[in-house]
Amino acid sequence: LDALAEQTIREAGGEPAFKGYQGFPATLCVSVNAAVVHGIPTDTPLQEGDVVGLDCGVTFKGLVTDAARTVGVGKLHRKSRRLIEVTEKAFWIAHQVMRAGVRTGDIGHAVQTYVEAQGFGVVRALVGHGVGRHVHEDPKVPNYGTRGTGTVLPEGAVIAVEPMVTIGHYDVLTAADGWTVRTADESLAAHYEHTVVITATGADVVTAV
Predict the structure, then answer these.
(1) What are phi and psi of 34, to 5 degrees?
(2) Residues 163, 122: contact at Cβ < 8 Å?
(3) Radius of gyration of the chain (CA)
(4) pTM greater than 0.85 (yes/no)
(5) Which portions of the chain are predicted below pLDDT 70?
């Protein structure tokens, strides 16, 4: 998967934004089951029922985009399917509130309210972020929060909004490889992300297919 991603990006005239970033060794972050984000690709075969997060950054003509999807391998347990569905829907619910003048707390509140109402957890230790000339820019965009708080988003702001959702508790820890962030209770996690441009009336999703 990692080799295919790098080949595809380079053939299109881009560069992998993650490869070499702060020492990260790969093009993709591949986060399996209890891994939330930043998983390093390995030679371990994926198994039936695995929940796999794929996070990819691309630099093209000096601009960076960042996007992630979580998918299932083969036949999934019902709870796993629901986790993936809720994580994706959380982004689109948050997308409905995005426009110039809203605050990052409004986005976080939308994600948190929906996810927790479905019985899942929202990771606190990791957040979305600005993106554009660099992989990570200001402002931070948490997936939890209170309406009317946080940074005001002006027209033209570019942010990566990325719900990170757990079946169990939202606490996470970093694995021995120094990169992979896993749920502390080893429960399943999912991740969904798009890069968006804030407009006067909404938000354009530039990484949508």
Answers:
(1) -80, -10
(2) yes
(3) 16
(4) yes
(5) none
